[in-house]
Write a structure and sequence with these properties.
The protein has about 200 residues and is α/β, with parallel strands linked by helices. Helix content is about 30%, strand content about 25%.
Length: about 200
């Protein structure tokens, strides 16, 4: 294999790290530490895309000769953004709101060449139909999976899959936090090949 730039994942998420390791096991990780607040009139798509780009750019000076991967996920219930709940009570509240409804997940990915400043980015759009859940099911799920740091309060790679009626999307990895199909395509466009 020819020499390739080194990869850096702009994330401290163990879920994103595990996903990237599936396709390319050798990479560095660093937390980008940016403001993730949305801007006025910014759509969920635009927010996810901007944050992925900003996360990658935040590490550019620390990693001057690398391909930096930024990613973000925005979960929406109608017009309401479902963030990382952070606590048991917030998990329960979000899942009660989501019961029987459709959630949309916008999962972005950006690949930045830190030498040139050039980047490519894309967003995966996934639709999830949540089952009608009883309060007892919600409580048991939160107790078992403890999804406090997961957007919309579930881990699709864990027991969270038991909450779903149906998933519509191009890449099951995107729901976990990193759209690998789009990432592989963007890396190839930046002349980095996983195969």
């Amino acid at each position: 294999m020819k020499n390739q730039a080194q990869l850096v994942l702009a994330s401290s998420s163990p879920y994103r790290q595990a996903l990237l390791a599936k396709i390319y096991p050798t990479f560095d990780t660093a937390s980008p530490d940016i403001n993730e607040s949305s801007r006025d009139n910014e759509s969920p798509f635009e927010l996810a895309l901007r944050l992925a780009i900003e996360k990658a750019q935040a590490l550019r000076s620390r990693y001057p000769n690398h391909l930096i991967i930024g990613s973000d996920q925005v979960a929406m219930l109608g017009d309401t953004q479902l963030t990382k709940p952070g606590s048991h009570d917030n998990c329960v509240r979000q899942l009660q709101l989501s019961s029987g409804k459709v959630l949309r997940f916008y999962t972005s990915v950006c690949v930045l060449n830190s030498m040139t400043g050039n980047y490519k980015a894309d967003v995966d759009n996934c639709k999830v139909q949540i089952k009608h859940l009883t309060n007892e099911e919600i409580e048991r799920y939160v107790e078992k999976d403890k999804p406090y740091g997961c957007a919309a309060a579930f881990k699709s790679e864990g027991l969270g899959i038991a909450l779903f009626e149906k998933i519509e999307g191009d890449d099951p990895n995107a729901l976990v936090g990193l759209p690998l199909i789009k990432l592989i395509k963007l890396l190839k466009e930046m002349d980095f090949h996983v195969l």
